[in-house]
């Protein structure tokens, strides 16, 4: 191999190494930006959580609490759509909603029967019955998505979380949050949201206690 060939080979190897180094740098930068965005988002949500803890306890009616929770979830960046479904005997009622994607709710029954065949397999009913957090972090391709998936996708919904809210030991309601990006609800986010729903449950207990005091009634066992 002549000196010219060696020189060309060295230049090619150097160029390949440079391209590889630049690719690594870009990947690290993307990872740093994503991590920085995630941390900033969590910090923002934690600050909102602290404000919500005080705010929720100021309400005197259940519907006001749910509407405020939905509005706060959207305003602080939790969701492009937030709504609360509450159990009322054999029925499920939507008692609060907020966000630019609320138009998709126009075609969702309200109220609907808890045992309605078309609702039985939905995430909302499963969360109400099972009492566990449920997440669809890629709703576009989720094979378990409900009949309104196409409308949700058309309104830029990519991830959804269903968060149970308990009254005593029973699930009383579910907070549904819809985000505009996939993989939005990671484990840290769900932990923050779990704390938020506990605050909502405590505020609900306060509302019911005040109602009992106001009407002169007592809860069972008192």
Could you characterize what this model shows?
The protein is of the alpha+beta class and 222 residues long. It has one domain: GAF domain (Beta-Lactamase, 2-Layer Sandwich). Helix content is 50%, strand content 18%. It has five helices and six strands, in the order ααβββαβαββα. The protein has a six-stranded antiparallel sheet, with helices on both faces. A hairpin with a 2-residue loop joins strand 1 and strand 2. Helix 1 runs parallel beside helix 5 and helix 2 packs antiparallel against helix 5. The chain is elongated. The N and C termini lie far apart (96 Å).
Please supply descriptive tags for the structure shown above.
222 residues; alpha+beta; Beta-Lactamase; 6-stranded antiparallel sheet; 5 helices; disordered C terminus
Strand fraction equals 15-25%
SSE class: alpha+beta
Number of domains: 1
CATH fold name, please?
Beta-Lactamase
- Largest sheet geometry: 6 strands, antiparallel
CATH superfamily: GAF domain
Q: Globular, elongated, flat, extended or rod-shaped: what is the shape?
A: elongated
| Mean model confidence by pLDDT | 80
Kindly, what is the distance between the CA atoms of the first and last residues, rounded to a whole number of angstroms? 96 Å
């Amino acid at each position: 191999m002549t000196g010219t060939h060696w020189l060309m080979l060295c230049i090619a190897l150097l160029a390949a190494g440079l391209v590889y180094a630049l690719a690594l740098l870009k990947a690290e930068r993307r990872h740093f930006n994503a991590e920085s965005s995630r941390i900033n988002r969590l910090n923002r949500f934690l600050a909102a959580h602290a404000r919500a803890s005080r705010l929720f306890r100021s309400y005197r009616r259940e519907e006001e609490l749910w509407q405020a929770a939905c509005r706060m979830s959207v305003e602080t960046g939790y969701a492009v759509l937030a709504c609360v479904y509450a159990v009322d005997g054999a029925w499920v009622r939507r008692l609060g909603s907020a966000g630019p994607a609320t138009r998709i709710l126009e075609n969702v029954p309200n109220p609907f029967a808890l045992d309605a065949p078309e609702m039985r397999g939905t995430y909302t009913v499963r969360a109400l019955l099972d009492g566990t957090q449920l997440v669809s972090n890629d709703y576009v391709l989720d094979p378990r998505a409900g009949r309104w998936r196409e409308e949700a996708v058309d309104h830029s919904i990519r991830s959804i979380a269903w968060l149970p809210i308990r009254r005593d030991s029973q699930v009383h309601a579910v907070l549904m949050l819809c985000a505009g990006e996939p993989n939005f609800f990671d484990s840290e986010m769900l932990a923050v949201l779990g704390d938020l729903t506990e605050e909502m449950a405590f505020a609900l207990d306060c509302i019911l206690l005040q109602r009992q005091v106001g009407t002169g009634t007592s809860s069972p066992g008192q």
